[in-house]
Amino acid sequence: MAKAKKFGAFSGVFTPSILTILGVIMYMRLGWVVGFKHFVHRNR
Fold first, then answer.
1. How far is Cα 10 from Cα 23, in angstroms, rounded to an integer?
2. Sign of CA dihedral 16, 17, 18, 21
3. What pLDDT is attached to residue 1?
4. Quick one: CA dihedral 22, 23, 24, 27, positive or negative?
């Protein structure tokens, strides 16, 4: 049987953690960006 390839500390822990954190930050900022654009456009 072939051995299963294991992930190292970087590709198994660090990368998914950073991608999750950045995804959450982008999701939270999306509402702010859309709301700010609406606010700026409305006050022209």
1. 18
2. positive
3. 63
4. positive
Tokens encoding 40:
């700026």
d(CA 13, CA 40): 40
2-43 pLDDT per residue, tens: 677 787 888 899 999 999 999 999 999 998 888 888 878 786
Q: Locate 10 and state its tokens.
A: 């970087």
Q: In angstroms, rounded to a whole number, what is the distance separating the alpha carbons of residues 37 and 31?
A: 10
| The token pair that represents 11 in the structure block | 């590709």
